[in-house]
Amino acid sequence: MPLYRYRCTLCQQTTEQFAPSDKIPKSARCPYCGMGAKRELGFHSARPSCWPMESDACGCHPDQREEFMRTAAAHGIPTEFNHDGCAIFTSREHRKRFCETFGYYDRNAGYGDPTPGGPFRQIQQEIEHG
Ligand SMILES: [Zn+2]
Q1: Which strand (E) or helix (H) includes residue 39?
Q2: Together in a domain, 58 and 111
Q3: Quick check: is 125 in a domain?
Q4: Which residue among 5, 23, 87, 105 is the one 20 to 30 A from 70 at the CA level?
């Protein structure tokens, strides 16, 4: 379903909403002040935002969820794991910090994605080279 953006006529805040493309509401209610918000023409995205993102690759066995959540929190990166054991990342920065701390990286990394040179790699090198 495409995503549409609405701008509040009073406070100018924007809000985004999914709608079927044959029934696009022209207006919405502003979640900040409760006034009417008008649809911004020209803005729509066929692809929904990918956050929060569920990651199987960074996940764990469902029985280990609690342990993984404690470990992530202990490293300063509080992360939820769903019932299938998938890690749930709330933002690109969250995913990057998690991956770099636990030694994962994105082979197709772009700007802001986890790379092989993160803190985990430095720790690994220190261990390997004494
Ligand atoms: Zn408003």
Answers
A1: strand 36-45
A2: yes
A3: no
A4: 105
pLDDT tens track, the chain, 130 positions: 677 888 999 999 888 887 777 888 888 999 889 999 999 877 666 555 677 888 888 999 999 999 999 999 999 999 999 988 999 998 888 999 999 888 888 777 777 777 776 666 666 677 777 6
Which residue range(s) make up the domain with 110? 53-117
Q: What is the whole-number distance in angstroms between the Cα of residue 39 and the centre of ligand 1?
A: 13
In-domain check, residue 36: yes
Domain count, the chain: 2
For ion ligand 1, residues whose CB falls within 5 Å: 8, 10-11, 30, 32-33, 35
d(CA 4, CA 67): 39
How many residues are recorded in the chain? 130
Residue 49 DSSP class: P
